[in-house]
Every structure is written in structure tokens, then in C-alpha cells.
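Re: export button greyed out
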Amino acid sequence: MKVIINILIGGQAGQGINKVSKIISSIVAKKGYYTFNYRDYPSLIRGGHNFNILTISDERINSYTNKIDFILALDIDTTKIHENKLNRNCIVLNFQSFIGLGRNTNVALAGALIKLLGIEKQDLLNEIKKEFGTKEAEHAAEKGYDSQGSIIKYHLKKLKNKINILDGSEGVAIGAVNSGLNVYFAYPMTPATPLMNDLARKVLVIQPESEIAVINAALGASFAGAKVMIGTSGGGFDLMTEGLSFQGMSEVPLVVYLASRPGPSTGVPTYSGQSDLNIALRGGHGEFPRVVVAPGDPVECIEKTNESFYLAEKFKCLSIILSDKHLAEGEYGSDSKPNRSIKFSVARKIPGEGLVRATSYEHDKYGNTTEDSVIVKKNNEARLLKYSKIKKEVKKFEMIKVHGKKNSKNLVIGFGSTKGVILDAIKDLDYKFLQVLYLMPMSSRIKKEIQKAKKVVLVENNLTGQLGRLIRERTGIQIEKRILKYDGRPFLADELRKELGKI
Amino acid sequence: MNLSTDYKITWCPGCPNHMILESSKRAFNSLIKKGYKKNDFVIVAGIGCHGKIFDYLNLSGFYGLHGRALASAFGIKIGNPNLKVVCYAGDGDTYSEGMEHFIHACRNNSDMTLIVHDNQSFSLTTGQITPTSQLGFKSKIEPNGNEIHPLNPIKLALVSGASFVARCDARNIEHTAKIIKEAIEHKGFAFVEILQTCIIFNPSLDHARKYMYKVDNGSNMKRAMKLADEWDYATRNGRIPIGVLYKHTRQTFEEKHDVLVSLMKKKVGWKG
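Workaround output, generated via the alternate export path:
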């Protein structure tokens, strides 16, 4: 890795921090550089302190660090707050140099940085034109660019990589649209809302009165023949759980997007954590089959969302896509491409075509309510059989991935949004990384990988090691070495590397 | 057309639910005679005594969760706006567990029908109070009688924006059938409150039947509010107007979404 640049953009909510990271990352992505943008913000609309950390590299980058090369400060507090993160030669670009530009101060800071990266002014202006289309913004960008005189810190030459920037929410949206999504039902809740906003530009999005209404309406729409998805975060998911169980009994296909936040309860709404695996696996009373997938980056979001739709329709089952704030809002500039998507249609009979019945009661083959012990037993067994069919079908898909040094005896295990940081942390270390993508059903290869390894380390963004518990339940193997982080913040690559060094 | 099923009916002998079932069959049959297809209808039911109607009507159906029938009915309409959706629910179902959906269904004005079997008690769970139980109603858990003031669902529907509000007497089969038919044909959210007794747990309403009288259809909100006020759910005093208390047409939920309008024009669902 020859180039790695960490840029912190900070200020108050509403000052246009995301615009700055978007402008910079779009420009460098066009030059073939990989990017990762981390967003950190409290739950408020104006004021407070927000910051993004944008990392630029000529090699794949999937996480951020706290070693900052540039600070773009939109207010006085930013440099003070992040003092301890600055590299020795860190350059501070300050809003005070651009007094009088008002709302376009952020654009000027972006312009100044672009100059320091050694990028042509025209590239900057093209981007500004596309993003804003105002003379004021162009003027601000130019003013920022020119403010640095002849100083150039980097010479970012054009690379051949074809970079596409996506966040996890966009990935899920693409996967859903590729699957033929007709209607998305959701009640606003961070960090699931970005998906709702994105889908509203693409399909019919309905916002009913509560998460309870969301899931019951979605089941109704699916029953009537629409391809549907619903989305929420922890508390909303709790409200939906009776509906999950209803899905199990009625066998109306349903895809659920669960973007978790650190809990319990209202918890830490705008921060990240992986503490909702347990409820994704077990939410809802009674015993019924389900699929739980956890993509680890936006491209996997596209693929796993598509698989979730396919499985839900094929088996008339429940599919849950697990994400979290870090994946949902982390912006990945990457050259990887998704697998070709699976196409499928709604083949089941729907109302209007004939007599169709769905019910929350135990029922006979006509859909009539029954309490008959023979049928109750038979139906329970049928639900179990369905799960075994799902288990067989999902073998077609990547249920796990093994990254890093394939022959290493040292194994890191994780799922979901920690993928990126684990990849970056074990780079050049004698480790391989087992990424679990299907949590339910689970791949039998997990046990073999663990047995082959000498040292096994569990990495999770939660307090109790929920994936570890699941692996113990499925394999009988207790993973003793665990690195768990539960302060509402995702792991940093250098921090995780240090922790791995201690084990 | 025979809309019966061979499923054994397990409502108590003499329960007015039998009469609501008969009224419904008559309403559906008269619509089928008019040209509607049997497959155009989907019934939705909540959980409670009323919900058993799901097994007794030979139509496509969705037997939902307690309190959530209306939310599912709304979803079915979005899943295919060409379907005629008729949602059956109880008073506990609608006014207690599912109150949020009731108010928002009135606001949304989705083109569907809600029929509430209001027997002023939770009966399948053996007789607890509901939000329409009269003051003094005694149950196992309220041995001294209900002390909580009931709500007036008619007034609530009116102020929440329902575009069709009707009240029926379950025992008046012919009149109820006529109102249900009119409700299904109404373009927008139609709310039909059917007053019935629970002959086991709350039979008091039968004494009030003599105060029931039919009113003509009206589209005047002031008149409707006045009519809604006549009968006091708490004391059981006053005259009880039955019929279409209020009816007017306004844009439906489905008409607000171009993509749903286009499905209605093409007369297809999302499946094509």
C-alpha cells in the first residue's frame, strides 16, 4: 500500500459534512482509488458535533483508523475534539480561512483538499457542477482550491481500478429491486431509514402507523401477490415479532431488513452494534423455519438480499437480512462486483385467481381452522421438513467465506459489518478469517474450519458473543478467545490488530 | 350462489353472529348477481368469536392476528387494489388491541370495508370488558361492574375521517345485508358497526332494540354527529339510529399512488 490518506471532516449537524466526503470520494474514485467513509453523528438535527472519517487508498480499504492526516474543520470545536487522533504532520484546513462563503464553506474546504491531493482543478469543478449546479458552489470550490497556492501533498495519479461507491443501504435496495420488489413497508427508525429513503425513489414505499401495522400489512400485500419487504431496527423489530410468528403459520413469503443499533431499548440510535443476532434468530413464538443472512459489505448486501427474496418466495418462508448502522451507512468505494442476480416470479396462486386462504390458526389443507392433534403434529413436522429443504437449497449459495492466509492455523471468526475491519486488521498477519454469511441455516463447514485451526478468535461488536453462542449450539465447540467491543462504535483496524497481537 | 362451507359452525345457538353471516351472504350474493366475480372478494378476519366467519364463508380469506385484521386488509388492498376487501373484526379486536389501525384506516380512506361485530364484550375469552362495554357491566375480573367510560366508535370514525359510517342491528338481517352491500360498493373506507348482544356474557342490549330506528342516508357531518350522540354507550339510554349515518366520497388511498392507479386501470395485481 503506497497511498493511505485519512481525512476527518467535522462540524455541526447541518453544515454539509456528508457533502464534503461525497465530493472528495467521488473525485478520487473516478481516479481509481478505493475509499471508505465512516459517519459519526449524534441523534439531533442541527448543532452538536458530527464527523466523517474518509480513507483513501490505492489498495482495497474497508475500515477507518484514528490516525488523521487531514482535518477539515467546519467549526471551532472540531480540532479540539479530535486532537488525540492527529498524525504528526496532520494538516488542518479551517473554516476561518473562508469566512464569507456561508453555506458553501464546506465546498471550499473540499476544494482546498483536492488541491493538496494533487488533483486537477477541472476534476473538482466537474464534480461540483454535477453535485450542486450553482455558480456560488463553483466559486467556493475554486476559492478553496486556489487558497493552497502551489502546495501539493500527494500526487494522486490515475489508476486503472473501476471504483463504485455504495453504502450497505444502497446495496440492500439494489438487491431488492433486482429481485422485483414491488412494495416496501416501513416505519422510520434509524439506522433502517436510509434504505426507506433510497427505495422511495425506486418503488412504492408505504409508511403505516406502526411497525405492527407494517408487518401485518406486508403479509396482506404478499398474500395478494406483491413482492414485499419490510425494514426496521431493534425496537421496531420487537413490535413485529408476533407478525414473524404469523408468517411461520400462514406461510406468506416475507423479507425483513433488520438494521440494528446498540441496545437495549431505545439504546444508542445513531451508533453501531451487533447485539440483535439473537432476536433475529429467535424472535417470534412457536417453532417455524426462517433464513437469517448477514452480508458484510454493500456488494454482499446486493447478493444476500436477492437470495433472501428468492428463498422467501420459493419456500414461502421468512428471510431476515441482518445489518447495522456501520454497514447501512458506511460508504465503501470498491471494485468488487455482485454475482448475477437470481430471477424468479410469484408462482403461487393468489386471490383473484381462485380461492386462496391464509390463516394465523393451525389449519387443514383447505385452510380451515383445526385443533385436531393428528394435524397439529403433522403440520409441525411439515414446518421442520421445510427447514431441511431450505438447508439443502442454501448450499447453492456462499454461506461462509474464508479470507486471508488460507493455510494459516490461526482463525478469526465474525459476521456482518466487522468483515471490513477484520480484513484490514489481518492484512500481512498469519491469520485467516472465516466470515459467516448464513446464520440460519448454518454451514457445516464452520465446524471443520474450527477443528483445523490451532488458535480460534471470535470477533463481535457486542457484549456477549452471540455468534459464539450460536456456533456452540450448532457445533458443541466453545470459542474461548474473544474480542468483543460494545461501546457503540465499530472496531478500528489498528485497534483490532493490537488486540489480536495480545492473544 | 352457495357461499356456505361444510365447516361445522361453533357459534352458540342463537348468537347474532349467525345472522351477520346470513346478512353477509345475502350482500355478497346480490353483488355477484350485479356482476362482481366471487374471486374479486377477499375477506379478512381478526381473532375472537366473529373471526370464525372465516371458516363459514366460501371466499378467499385472510385470518389475521388479534387486533391486526385491519392492517392486513390495508396491505391486501395495496397488494392488489382490484380486490374487494371486506374485513370482519370484533369490538375488542378493533377498539382495544387494534385501535391504532382503526383511526388510521379512517384517515387513509383505503377502498375497503370494515364490519365490526360489536357485542360489547370479550366473549371467546369468557366475558371481559371491551371499550364499548356499558358502565356497570359485571365480569369475572370486574365483579363490581365496569367503571371505565366506554367510547363511541361512530363518533370516533366520523372525526377520524371515515367516508362511510353505518350502524346496524345484527338481528335485522335484511337491513344489515342492504347496508353491507352498500358499504362494499362505497368507494373509500366504509365502517359498519353492527350492534349485537352476546347472549352468554352481555345480553343487555336486546332490551334496547326497541329504541332502534332507521335513518335515511346522509352526507351531513353535523347531522351524523348528532345521530351518533343519540345513544349513550355508557348508560344505554337514548334512541339508536341505524342505517348509513354519513357518506361522502373523497380520494382513496389507492388513488393517491400512480402505480396503484395503473394497476386498477389494467385490472391486474403486481403479479401481472
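Chain B touches chain A at residues 5, 7, 39-40, 42, 44, 47, 52, 54-55, 58-65, 68, 71-80, 82-83, 100-101, 103-104, 257, 259-260, 269-271 (CB under 8 Å). The button fix ships in the next patch.
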